[in-house]
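User: Sequence recovery, please. Input:
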């Protein structure tokens, strides 16, 4: 079908194929659920129309699913898809089809639209998959999708005239299997039926009926403007029966219950109404520097007394509390781990030691670091990463059954090691891999400020070295700034650097495919659902709530933390206009869609209950 020698060495071919990963995954994910099921992957390979070492596309996909010990009812994540492209045979239909597409892309000069997609998107569902939930006609604005669509236009525009005629689009679909994937071209069609299908598709894209499609029409069809983002409805506890079904409230704190200037008007009366109604509530703060009792202290100082009583126990929790639980969870940071922990004071160390003093005392902890020490620690981080990679490859190889099992294990461990242990996969893994090196992590327990304001170029340099060589990155929140006030400027709110400012900078320094080593424990974070929102739901249950998620709502002022946390947890959310974000900003957060909006916390109760 094509001359592989013109493309380069096997390694160069593999790189080309990997550069198509995001585009291929996006175009094949027909139901936009962020995974590829058995039929979606089979259909993609079938559309490629290439020969392979397998008898059929379904047989090839069966082998892929067996590699991951998946049944046909399960699905491949993006991470698994990348692993497949890294390990699949060069004669497989998947590899040959994507290599053909990649080669054509290079020849057409649009490889820049595809290169780097893996590096920018990462491998976790909190990065690429979350950006693909609205792919195809319901685009959500992700760069991976838009640039892939732009590349498809250039490939269709055979004469480079800036427009696509019907013949050019039909020829491109026949030549480029991934473009037929973009068009959702059914495979069980005759030539005549395909011509009719493509004709109808062409007329839909050609919105002005001119007989040619320009790039604006193409992008408008596959990447509709942000007006398509659903808007929340106004919260009205009197007129909307759905509002009355909410009996459990998870409140953000800063910008929702209080501001730098004090309590937000109506906050105390709303909590009083919840208590009188027999409902339940929890206050969640994304602070990474303080435990839950600091929330109690702050509210007491501000005079918060629902129903003229102090805030009851079991009502507050912070991102710092959640991060302690995450770090102490089984196997996350085993005994002997090494950590650079940045915090404003010793409270985080006290929290960790109180939670598990034996494990805490086994860790080697630094609170600042120079470059030379970072280079020394980085060798441990590198060794640990290599050990984990080998262990993962070993586990995957051991999961393979049949004749392929021995070959897979030999690929991982080598013939000599397999012979020495007489093919015992468990024994050879233990012998070759040995004891795991200490895990290394950079940990943030701060809201932007650390002890003695020790931010320096050398400290940032040290963290960059650690993260580049494989250290895990653990932090509480991605808020870029925090609010502050100055009595000399009444009514003004000034930004202070938040943790997210430093997180974003350091994540940019991490190698491609590093997102699996980043853990955000606060609201909206990739482990925040389990360690913060699920904890809040449990706290509601301890107060007597049923725990039914359709009767729970997160109330907050930020799309990227409060609303996102609710979306990831599968519960309702209400955006308030009293803090960092307003509902007019929704187009900037197309996947963080609140259920409701409300002017302030004071307007959550029915009108007759407000201010009581």
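Assistant: Recovered sequence (612 residues):
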């Amino acid at each position: 079908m094509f001359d592989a020698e013109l493309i380069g060495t096997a390694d160069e071919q593999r790189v080309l194929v990997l550069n198509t990963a995001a585009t291929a995954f996006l175009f094949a994910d027909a139901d936009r659920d962020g995974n590829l099921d058995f039929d979606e992957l089979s259909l993609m390979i079938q559309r490629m129309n290439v020969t392979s070492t397998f008898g059929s596309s379904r047989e090839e996909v069966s082998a892929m699913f067996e590699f991951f010990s998946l049944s046909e009812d399960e699905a491949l994540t993006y991470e698994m898809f990348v692993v497949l492209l890294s390990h699949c045979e060069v004669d497989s239909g998947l590899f040959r089809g994507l290599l053909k597409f990649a080669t054509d892309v290079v020849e057409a000069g649009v490889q820049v639209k595809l290169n780097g997609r893996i590096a920018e998107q990462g491998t976790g569902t909190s990065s690429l998959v979350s950006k693909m939930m609205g792919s195809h006609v319901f685009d959500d604005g992700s760069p991976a999708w838009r640039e892939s669509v732009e590349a498809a236009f250039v490939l269709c525009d055979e004469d480079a005239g800036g427009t696509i005629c019907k013949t050019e689009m039909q020829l491109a679909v026949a030549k480029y299997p991934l473009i037929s994937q973009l068009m959702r071209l059914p495979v069980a069609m005759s030539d005549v039926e395909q011509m009719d299908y493509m004709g109808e598709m062409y007329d839909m894209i050609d919105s002005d009926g001119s007989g040619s499609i320009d790039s604006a029409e193409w992008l408008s069809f596959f990447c509709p403007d942000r007006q398509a983002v659903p808007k929340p409805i106004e919260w009205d506890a009197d007129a909307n029966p759905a509002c009355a079904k909410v009996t459990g409230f998870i409140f953000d704190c800063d910008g929702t219950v209080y501001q730098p200037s004090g309590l937000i008007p109506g906050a105390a009366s709303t909590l009083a109404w919840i208590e009188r109604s027999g409902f339940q509530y929890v206050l969640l703060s994304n602070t990474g520097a303080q435990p839950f009792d600091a929330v109690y202290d702050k509210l007491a100082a501000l005079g918060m007394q629902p129903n003229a009583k102090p805030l009851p126990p079991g009502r507050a929790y912070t991102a710092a509390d959640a991060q302690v639980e995450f770090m102490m969870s089984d196997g996350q940071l085993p005994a002997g781990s090494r950590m650079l922990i940045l915090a404003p004071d010793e409270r985080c160390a006290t929290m960790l030691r109180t939670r598990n003093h034996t494990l805490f005392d086994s860790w080697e902890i630094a609170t600042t670091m120079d470059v030379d020490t970072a280079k020394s620690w980085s060798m441990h981080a590198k060794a640990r990463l290599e050990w984990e990679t080998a262990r993962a490859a070993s586990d995957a190889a051991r999961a393979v059954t049949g004749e392929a099992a021995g070959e897979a294990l030999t690929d991982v461990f080598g013939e000599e090691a397999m012979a020495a242990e007489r093919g015992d996969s468990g024994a050879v893994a233990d012998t070759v891999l040995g004891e795991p090196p200490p895990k290394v992590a950079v940990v943030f327990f701060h809201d932007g400020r650390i002890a003695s304001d020790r931010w320096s170029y050398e400290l940032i340099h040290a963290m960059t070295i650690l993260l580049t060589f494989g250290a895990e990155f653990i932090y509480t929140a991605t808020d870029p700034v925090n609010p502050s006030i100055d009595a000399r400027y009444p009514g003004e709110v000034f930004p202070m650097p938040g943790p997210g400012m430093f997180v974003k900078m350091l994540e940019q320094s991490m190698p491609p495919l590093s997102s699996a080593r980043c853990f955000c424990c606060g609201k909206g974070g990739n482990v925040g659902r389990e360690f913060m929102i699920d904890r809040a739901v449990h706290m509601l249950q301890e107060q007597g709530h049923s725990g039914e998620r359709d009767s729970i709502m997160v109330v907050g002022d930020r799309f990227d933390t409060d609303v996102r946390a609710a979306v990831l947890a599968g519960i309702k959310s209400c955006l308030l206009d009293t803090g960092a974000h307003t509902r007019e900003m929704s187009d900037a957060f197309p996947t963080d869609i609140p259920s409701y909006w409300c002017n302030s916390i004071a307007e959550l109760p029915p009108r007759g209950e407000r201010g009581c």
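Residues 233-319+523-609 form a domain with the Rossmann fold fold (CATH 3.40.50.1000).
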